[in-house]
Specification:
InterPro entries: ThiF/MoeB/HesA, ThiF_NAD_FAD-bd, UAE_UbL_dom, Ub-E1_IAD_1, Ub_act_enz_dom_a_sf, Uba2, UBA_E1_SCCH, Ubiquitin-activating_enz. The protein is of the alpha/beta class. 33% of the residues lie in helices and 15% in strands. The protein contains 19 helices and 18 strands. The strands form 4 sheets. An 8-stranded mixed β-sheet has the order 3-2-1-4-5-6-9-10, sandwiched between helices. Strands 13-12-14-15-11-16 form a 6-stranded mixed β-sheet.
Length: 648
């Protein structure tokens, strides 16, 4: 039974929830039943059929509608006297700035990706609002409390990073099905349907190498008046036939490896007269891209069936045909989405054909979707437990009950006879560049790297800034914003293409850069150190950032997902473990009843704690990380130097 003090704190609180998915539905229900009167919810997603088995505020009739708005309506039916304000929007939108966050007493996160989590963490720090973070992966879960100046912020500790593979493994010598998935999704799908100007390692030309012609034909470009069936077979023969034969010509590569076999479309599916199968897609729902399906066109129904090589080839050709005939306006702007049925079918078929060529076992569409979309199947009970723990910690925060704050970990199997392991929060990490403003050090070739490399690989990818501003002394080198004049935009765009040492205010060894994100109200200093050479395998970005919380590499061989919140589905951009509902499990508890410092993590002497930590690590890898496939390809960067290295 809640005390009068607790009830008073609850009724007077204004709460912001970010995420209305697996955890979010349970959390909103629990907040309402606990007596909270004023709740605001931000979620950019719409309801999908796959959500209905665990997000219990939603029904079949709600599919396609806003999660935040439907969740509000569902809860108001049994708690009509409370105020719930929904926002069908991205939490990174400009309207959700520091001033917006300042109106709340506490922020509760139910997100599914690292980028959005970091963004909310920074806004909470800037606004001085406590944050209760959470995540689940199957049977595992956690709740952590982050209060500025009193506990560590969300970014004080390193987060699990995806397993990385050299691009040569993906493009030339795959040995696992996940390699084939990454090739099909991040290379082939992107090349055919994504940004044509993006660097892509599938740019192998089919023209005669001995030709003296200066203009080399791009085989992925559809020729004028080329029949879609002919185009599809030409692409098929190029990537599964010609490219394999080209790879086989390098005998040294295959001395200790199984040789792949080239596959040509005519050997699998004899050519049919043009138009013979042209009416198969007419039964699809007009105007609804998600209803377009190569499986439906070919009469394949069960996604758990293992397709033969012939069926995979048919799906590949049919999916490509449907993209160009039914979704032609989208081509050039598409990125892979696990909820895009046609995209999943295409990637599954392409990965299976490549797997067949390299002697790798084939997978069903259900399995391939899990790998490509990073799906760890959610457990509704875990979400409910975590939601309850979030509310418990939120009540402590509202009462300023600092001594009783706890990070709580939910385990699948008991440890020390406990399934819920409470741990005192860390103190702030003094070396955290986010909450402690510690200067960073960047080693970079200032005579070879462009400002664009710095912005893309460091400022955005590693520091997580959305609207960065970069200054050298009083000189403004780069800025992003809607209020810029045209000449300013053009000037900054020109700067992006300049080598660092050739900028209007040259960046060389010893330069101190100030990098700021006005939306997040985050500022940090970067000390630049010039370095000539980098190890392409170990340092693929061609630059090294020190002083930030470097993600811990986690190898994954299974499934994970992005389901709620501001999600991303491009594996090549993924930076953390993502799960079907909410994630970032980072189980590193130590002794309870003791105020911990960062050094205590490695120095805890308790055998119980050590055994728990080891068990947690094993569980973490076996049940969360190893069941994921957040894969990043190490492509050696995009500079001219790294391109030359790859060509050599």
């Amino acid at each position: 039974m809640a005390s009068e003090q607790q009830l008073s704190a609850i009724k007077g609180a204004k709460v912001l929830m970010v995420g209305a998915g697996g955890i979010g539905c349970e959390l909103l229900k629990t907040l309402a039943l606990s007596g909270f009167k004023d709740v605001h919810i931000i979620d950019m997603d719409t309801i999908e059929v796959s959500n209905l088995n665990r997000q219990f505020l939603f029904r079949q009739s709600h599919v396609g509608q806003s999660k935040a708005k439907v969740a509000r309506d569902a809860v108001l039916k049994f708690r009509p006297n409370i105020s719930i304000t929904p926002y069908h929007a991205n939490v990174k939108d400009p309207e959700f700035n520091v001033d917006f966050f300042k109106q709340f007493n506490v922020v509760l996160n139910g997100l599914d990706n690292l980028d959005a989590r970091r963004h909310v963490n920074r806004l909470c720090l800037a606004a001085g609002v406590p944050l209760v973070e959470s995540g689940t992966t199957g049977f595992l879960g956690q709740v952590t409390v982050h209060v500025k100046g009193r506990t560590e912020c969300y970014e004080c500790q390193p987060k699990p990073a995806p397993k990385t593979y050299p691009v040569c493994t993906i493009t030339s010598t795959p040995s696992k099905f996940v390699h084939c998935i990454v090739w099909a999704k991040d290379l082939l799908f992107a090349k055919l349907f994504g940004d044509k100007n993006q660097d892509n390692d599938l740019n192998v030309r089919a023209s005669d190498a001995s030709s003296s012609s200066q203009q080399t034909e791009d085989v992925f470009e559809r020729k004028n008046d080329e029949d879609i069936e002919q185009y599809g077979r030409r692409i098929f023969d190029h990537v599964f036939g010609y490219n394999i034969e080209l790879a086989l010509s390098n005998e040294d590569t295959w001395k200790n490896r199984n040789r792949p076999r080239p596959i040509y479309s005519k050997d699998v599916i004899p050519a049919e007269p043009v138009g013979q199968n042209g009416n198969q897609a007419k039964n699809l729902v007009a105007g609804n891209p998600s209803s377009i399906s190569a499986m439906a066109s070919l009469g394949l129904k069960n996604p758990q069936d293992l397709w033969s090589l012939k069926e995979n080839s048919a799906i590949f050709l049919e999916a490509l045909k449907l993209f160009f005939s039914k979704r032609e306006k989208e081509i050039g702007n598409l990125t892979f989405d696990k909820d895009d049925q046609l995209a999943v079918e295409f990637v599954t078929a392409a990965a299976n054909i490549r797997a067949s060529s390299f002697g790798i076992p084939l997978h069903s569409l259900f399995e391939a979707k899990g790998i490509a979309g990073n799906i760890v199947h959610a457990v509704a009970t875990t979400n409910a437990i975590i939601a309850g723990l979030i509310v418990i910690e939120a009540i402590k925060v509202l009462q300023n009950d600092v001594k009783n704050y706890r990070m709580t970990y939910c385990l699948e199997h008991p440890s020390r006879k406990m399934l819920l392991m409470p741990v005192e929060p860390f103190e702030p990490n003094k070396s955290c560049y986010v909450c402690s403003e510690t200067p960073l050090t960047l080693e970079i070739n200032t005579h070879g790297s462009k400002l664009k490399d710095l912005v893309d690989k460091i400022v955005k990818a590693k520091l997580g800034m959305n609207l960065p501003l970069i200054m050298h002394g009083s000189s403004l080198l780069y800025e992003v914003g809607d209020d810029l004049e045209e000449d300013e935009v053009a000037n900054y765009a020109a700067n992006l293409e300049k080598v660092l040492s050739e900028l209007p205010s040259p960046v060389i060894g010893g330069t101190i850069l100030t990098v700021e994100d006005l939306q997040q109200e985050l500022k940090c200093s970067i000390n630049v150190k010039h370095r000539e050479e980098f190890d392409e395998e170990k340092e693929p970005d061609g630059m090294v950032l020190s002083g930030w919380t470097q993600p811990v590499a986690v190898e994954k061989n299974g499934k994970g997902s992005t389901d709620n919140g501001a999600s991303t589905s491009r594996l090549s951009e993924a930076t953390s473990l993502v799960t079907e509902d909410d994630d970032d499990l980072q189980i590193i508890p130590t002794q309870t009843g003791k105020k911990r410092k960062l050094s205590d993590v490695s120095g805890a002497a308790s055998s119980d704690v050590s055994s728990f930590r080891n068990e947690a690590k094993i569980k973490r890898k076996a049940e969360a990380a190893d069941n994921n496939n957040d894969v990043v390809m190490l492509d050696g960067g995009s500079s001219e130097n790294s391109k030359k290295k790859r060509e050599q």
